[in-house]
């Protein structure tokens, strides 16, 4: 195949993917996954690279209908990967867990602390189940997955203001439920 034929073939696959053809997008993923992963390794290191690559490809799928073709698909995907890497690196730093002194003995978690953590996890699970489905969805997308208000609103089909209000009310309700369970 000549370079022109290769470009036309990719444009055809890209058009099909833009129109929701998952198989066509799968072809694009096969073509670019190594490039995306390699870039992610260079940006965030091997520990976070697989998450970055997966998230970047997911974001590309969601944004594909808005791809205008002003740049090559590979360039556009490169930009998404870079943005995703910075976002996930920042989130990883923000959510890094630092063990508390005295919680470990002989390389393992002290049994008392392990029990406390299990109890806290169970209480949080019960509190999340007590929220309305809309509140629970917003809390999970924002606080667990770290999505922005705009991404959360778009995914749930609500306005950004509604997403913010639900999140605020859900956090207040969670606080009340968790404080009541102590």
Cα-atom radius of gyration: 21 Å
SS field, number of helical segments = 8
Could you tell me how far the N terminus lies from the C terminus, measured between alpha carbons in angstroms?
Answer: 69 Å
For the record, the count of structural domains works out to: 2
**Which fold does the CATH topology of the largest domain refer to?**
Rna Polymerase Sigma Factor, Chain: A
Helix-strand category: mainly alpha
Please give the number of β-strands.
2
Give the topology string: H per helix, E per strand: HHHHEEHHHH
Most strands sheet = 2 strands, antiparallel
Query: What are the low-pLDDT stretches, counting only 5+ consecutive residues below 50?
Result: none
Per CATH, the superfamily of the largest domain is RNA polymerase sigma factor, region 2, helix turn helix motif
Helix content: over 70%
| Residue-averaged pLDDT | 84
Strand order of the largest sheet: 1-2
Percent strand equals under 5%
CATH class of the largest domain: Mainly Alpha
Rough outline: elongated
- Identify the CATH architecture of the largest domain: Orthogonal Bundle
């Amino acid at each position: 195949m000549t370079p022109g034929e290769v470009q036309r073939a990719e444009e055809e696959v890209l058009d099909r993917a833009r129109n929701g053809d998952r198989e066509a997008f799968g072809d694009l993923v096969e073509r670019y996954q190594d490039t995306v992963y390699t870039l992610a390794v260079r940006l965030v290191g091997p520990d976070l690279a697989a998450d970055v690559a997966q998230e970047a490809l997911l974001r590309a799928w969601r944004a594909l209908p808005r791809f205008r073709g002003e740049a090559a698909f590979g360039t556009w995907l490169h930009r998404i990967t870079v943005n995703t890497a910075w976002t996930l690196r920042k989130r990883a730093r923000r959510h890094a867990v630092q063990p508390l002194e005295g919680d470990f003995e002989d390389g393992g978690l002290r049994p008392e602390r392990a029990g406390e953590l299990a109890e806290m996890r169970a209480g949080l699970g019960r509190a999340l189940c007590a929220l309305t489905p809309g509140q629970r969805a917003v809390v999970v997308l924002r606080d667990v997955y770290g999505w922005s208000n705009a991404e959360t609103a778009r995914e749930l089909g609500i306005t950004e203001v509604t997403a913010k209000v639900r999140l605020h009310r859900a956090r207040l309700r969670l606080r009340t439920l968790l404080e009541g369970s102590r």
